[in-house]
UniProtKB/TrEMBL annotation:
Organism superkingdom: Eukaryota
Name under which the protein is recorded: CAAX prenyl protease
EC top class, as a word: hydrolase
E.C. number(s) listed in UniProt: 3.4.24.84
Amino acid sequence: MLLNEDLIVWLILLFSWTEYIWELYLSLRQLNIYKTNNTIPDDLNEMLTEESFKKARLYGIDKSKFKIVKDFYSIALISIILYNRWIYVAWHKSEHFAEFFNISPDQEILISCIFMSYVTLFNFIVNMPFTIYGTFVLEQNHGFNKQTVGFFIKDQLKSLVLSLVIVLPIISVSIYIIMLGGNMFVVWLWLFTTVATLILLTLYPTVIAPLFDKFVTLPDGPLRKGIEDLASKLHFPLSQVYIVEGSKRSAHSNAYFSGLFGAKRIVLFDTLVEKHDEQKKVTTGCTDNEILGILAHELGHWSCSHIYKSIALTEVNLLLLFTAFGLLFKYSMLYTALGFPAGQEPVIIGLIVVLQMILAPYNSLLSFFATALSRKFEFEADNFAVSLNYPNELRSALIKLGKDNLDYPIYDKLYSAWYHSHPTLLHRIENIKNKIANEKND
């Protein structure tokens, strides 16, 4: 029995380390490309200088080294937690903590909330050194971090509190459904998480996002008129255009639309709008027409129903995961393998073990295919922008964004296939060229 229990832990660790070694191999391949490729690709010669290309290369090297160290730290920590049965230790401490408030051990939902609070705080603390280094060393050294220490602390604390406010009620209801749902609990659990997901997606742009950043309406002018004309042409249900003050957090730039049902809002990072720094003699951001090219791409996601397709696939996956959980979570050895005494099988532990550990190979495989599908969606959105006669604007905007964000344009094929949810800049430029050529031939 003990051998079988140990075997479960060792099998979990075996897959974790196998995946880690595979990803380390990919990271080393990409790091080698950063170090050995010093030539600007022909497609980028017009808009990239030797200096900007070198900056992107050095930024890539530093990010890659940071990732390698962080990944090793993570796998080592996971190994220590599993080998020493710290999950049971955390549950046991949660029970002791509950005693101070006269919460009996049979009140599993309340103890599960204490346990999840412990886990969240633990992850927050053990990952904080990397969060601090990533923000105030890595991003700072390459000119991206704009956060003060006070802003950073407030931001991190808000994120911590918000995660607990959101997660604990969802966990509580989920456990209640599993405990009382009978043979149909998988369906009820899936329906509940689906509704919760849709509610969160609906609340994010108007309730959650403003807790972290300031949103102001885009003033009247050529850019706003261009956006409204584009939305009207496509019958996009635009309610408002906002500028988010992302420059208080980072120099990175982006644009997106939000709103799941009905009217939608377009959001532009203030770093996306063209600015000229007189002191540094540098122009960053995009022109109005280039921003319209970017938004034509974003509206391509809407026109092609990519958001709804992604949600549908996510829900199918959730149903499969919960079905697997329903079949496995009563297997007592999953709990004793983590150090729990026979007969003690908390639902939250079953969720963690089955969904995150036992199904880890499935999750990794699914993540790979989801990443590939995301790249397909990005090409479709680019093609949509080209069909609206924004090929040159989109191309120049993508190059400028890559330059401003120090995105090194050359990637190892395996690394890109495994990690990138977006095609590389060179692949997107090639796709735009091919799309233009095909439209001319037609």
